[in-house]
Design brief:
Elements: H1 13-24, E1 52-58, H2 72-76, H3 84-87, E2 111-114, E3 119-122, H4 126-130, E4 135-142, H5 148-157, H6 167-175, E5 185-189, E6 215-216, H7 235-256, H8 261-282, H9 289-295, H10 305-317, E7 322-327, H11 336-360, E8 367-372, E9 376-382, E10 391-395, E11 399-404, E12 412-414, E13 416-417, E14 424-426, E15 429-430, H12 431-441, E16 451-453, E17 456-458
Parallel strand pairs: 1-7, 1-8, 4-12, 4-15, 5-6, 5-7
Antiparallel strand pairs: 2-3, 4-11, 8-11, 9-10, 13-14, 16-17
Helix pairs in contact: 7-8, 10-11
Length: 472
């Protein structure tokens, strides 16, 4: 079935286009996608504040209590039992739900205020602390999902059940690509990290046409699998083959209808252009030493988080709509103090460098950067609480992320949690609210970006969600 990107039952596409141009005086035309699949309805609903997104996804669930949400009261009651009045019977995972005791675990890390905004961060994040005034920290994010697969699927697709389009696919579908030689949505996974598994469906197209699926870039000689021509095939031969295949597709479409034919042609032509554009974009050899020093000691290692941050900036320079970096290893059920130190060592400096680098190049203003995972960690210890170490279980009721650039209010800490860091006390932000706000910054009304599938209209935020205007 066909979809309507910007569905409004009261307004036809032509009327919407006309009204948009009347309001903006044509100002949006310079921002329009140049993709070869652009249609007349690929228009933002209103003037966007951001043109692109870089999402630094910390897979596994970073501990907000040890990074962004200091709890001196929790430290004062370290080792005591979690009060029943705080938990209020809320469900726990099977990993700690059968514990006979749930001892409170204060953070072993020191917190301090940074910048003119006095943003609170732990000493695990010295580089991020140095850019505190550029960040908007949300302490009150929450989700329904309590286990990794449904939680990360929920953040990426708006549903805990696999099969829906990813947020990058929705943006590709709604706005098209800004660079016709590269995919609208690109994913990168830090190499050799282990941790919770990641799946291609997290950047897939779901039931949207397949040209909107994200493409994974890898380190090494072949950043995109199966992109290179086989031995013995010249560039000229490939071009002739694609032209002949397009002719065959057109004949098939005349005979049997065109379902899937246009998408196949779009994919083939994009792959043809990517054979030139991908090697150029992913070659870091022209980056000066200063850049590698800025991003840290891992930045010269292909496939590292730091190297992928540099590549994310290069893709932003080339106007890729949506870039996502997945960094695994935050699932610290045990030995948290040592494990979280390693994670921060790998991610703190490159994340901060990316913000600084984008700002220096004039890109931060219209690039939205998001840092965070699928849920948070508990204020109590999973397993035995010892002086040498402890773990934290999954906690969906409150967790922290930060955002920067792209129309987000800098230097803001939004939302709050109780003194023990278990429940939200002010300004809750649901995952659908976060998704709605990201779409809003890109000029999209999240209730109107829909696709008709199996009898109803779907959207990223499904049946609820609101823009958090205080963050803008």
């Amino acid at each position: 079935m066909t979809g309507n990107r910007l569905h409004d039952p009261m307004t036809s596409r032509r009327r919407f286009l006309a009204s948009t141009l009347a309001v903006t005086g044509g100002a949006l035309w310079g921002w329009m996608p140049t993709s070869n699949w652009a249609h007349e309805d690929l228009q933002p609903h209103f003037m966007p504040r951001a043109k692109r997104v870089i999402w630094l996804f910390q897979s596994g669930g970073p501990s907000q209590i040890d990074l962004f949400d200091p709890k001196p009261h929790l430290n004062a009651h370290h080792g005591e039992e979690l009060p029943a009045s705080i938990r209020m019977g809320q469900r726990l995972t099977a990993m700690s739900g059968n514990q006979s005791t749930l001892p409170l675990a204060g953070s072993p890390f020191e917190f301090s205020a940074h910048g003119e905004s006095r943003q609170q961060m732990s000493d695990l994040l010295p580089h991020t602390a140095a850019i505190a005034d550029k960040l908007c920290i949300i302490r009150s994010l929450h989700t329904e999902a309590i286990n990794h697969d449904p939680a990360i699927t929920f953040v990426q697709t708006g549903s805990e059940i696999a099969g829906r389009p990813s947020i990058g696919a929705w943006l590709s579908y709604g706005l098209g690509a800004s660079n016709s030689d590269l995919p609208a949505s690109i994913a990168m996974v830090t190499q050799n990290k282990g941790g919770q598994p990641l799946y291609a469906r997290l950047w897939g197209s779901g039931f949207l046409p397949s040209e909107h699926q994200g493409i994974q870039f890898r380190s090494g000689k072949n950043p995109v699998l199966y992109l290179n021509d086989p031995d013995g095939m010249s560039r000229k031969m490939r071009r002739r083959m694609l032209d002949a295949l397009k002719d065959l597709h057109e004949i098939q479409a005349e005979r049997n209808g065109g379902d899937g034919i246009d998408s196949a042609n779009v994919r083939n032509e994009l792959a043809w252009r990517m054979q030139t554009s991908v090697p150029e974009a992913t070659d870091l050899s022209d980056e000066p030493d200063e850049i590698f020093e800025m991003y840290g000691p891992d930045s010269r290692k292909p496939g590292s988080y730091a190297a992928n941050c540099i590549l994310a900036r290069r893709l932003a320079e080339r106007n890729v709509r949506f870039v996502q970096l997945f960094h695994q290893g935050w699932d610290q059920h045990g030995s948290l103090p040592g494990g979280i130190r390693t994670q921060c060592r790998e991610t703190d400096q490159p994340s901060a460098a990316l913000i600084t680098d984008l700002e220096r190049r004039g890109l931060l203003e219209d690039t939205l950067v998001v840092w965070g995972g699928e849920f948070g960690r508990t204020n109590y210890s999973q397993g035995k609480l010892t002086p040498q170490g402890f773990g934290r279980d999954h906690h969906p009721l409150c967790f922290s992320i930060w955002m920067a650039g792209g129309g987000i209010k800098p230097g803001l800490t939004y939302g709050s949690t109780d003194d023990l860091g278990y429940n939200i006390t002010e300004n809750p932000v649901h995952v659908h609210d976060l998704q709605a706000t990201i779409l809003h910054l890109l000029g999209i009304d999240h209730e109107r970006l829909t696709y008709h599938f199996q009898g109803r209209r779907y959207r990223l935020t499904d049946v609820h969600g609101k823009v958090v205007k205080a963050l803008l």
